[in-house]
Design a protein that fits this description.
It is a single chain. This protein is 51% helix and 6% strand. The protein is mainly alpha-helical and 203 residues long.
């Protein structure tokens, strides 16, 4: 599952994606290419937002990895933050989560880009986050407010989630090797899917 903002610098993001592809190839000697879920290609852009929200937990849970390519606009996009938050809620051990922050200058040291990303998350305010469609933004904010009682409560919850990420090794986590991939027949349980859906219902 690739999580990213379309507003981030394309060359910098593409460089990080190529690095991801190269690392994947190193852990798969047979030369297999990663099969990626990408929003623009995998979601009907003309569909009802409610339908997209209902299937999001399934996409997240059936993905081997959740790879975040986060540039300067990532924390300003409401859909991006919702994807990340939902993943952490349903997979609290952060298994499969890989954060690949970058600056507009792709050559910027990863450690500096990581620190900058954490600073942006620390200042995150859902009220200031945007969506491509304003109606999506209003719908998501209403859902968050209904689930948490207020936007500020959600902001605090998200910061707690980010602190947990910051304490883990997800910035440098390597991709699992082919031998570590679960057989295709072993998908997430019904309980896991229900938990993910409930997380979205609660915001």
């Amino acid at each position: 599952f690739l999580s990213h903002s379309w507003r981030d610098d394309p060359p910098s993001k593409w460089q990080r994606m190529k690095e991801f592809q190269a690392e994947f190839a190193e852990t798969h000697p047979d030369g297999a290419e990663p099969k990626c879920w990408l929003d623009k290609a995998c979601i009907d852009q003309a569909s009802d937002i409610n339908q997209s929200l209902k299937v999001l937990p399934l996409f997240l849970l059936f993905s081997q990895s959740f790879v975040v390519f986060a540039g300067q606009s990532y924390t300003k996009r409401l859909w991006c933050v919702l994807e990340l938050y939902c993943f952490v809620v349903v997979r609290p051990q952060l298994d499969g989560l890989v954060l690949r922050p970058f600056a507009d200058d792709w050559a910027t040291e990863p450690a500096l880009a990581s620190k900058a990303l954490m600073t942006r998350f620390d200042k995150f305010d859902a009220n200031q986050a945007k969506c491509f469609l304003d109606e999506d933004r209003h719908h998501l904010l209403a859902m968050i407010e209904a689930g948490y009682g207020s936007i500020s409560a959600f902001n605090r919850k998200l910061r707690d989630v980010v602190k947990k990420i910051n304490k883990s090794a997800v910035f440098t986590a390597s991709l699992p090797s082919k031998s570590a991939v679960q057989p295709e027949s072993e998908g997430p349980s019904t309980l896991a899917v229900a938990t993910a859906t409930d997380a979205l219902d609660r915001g």
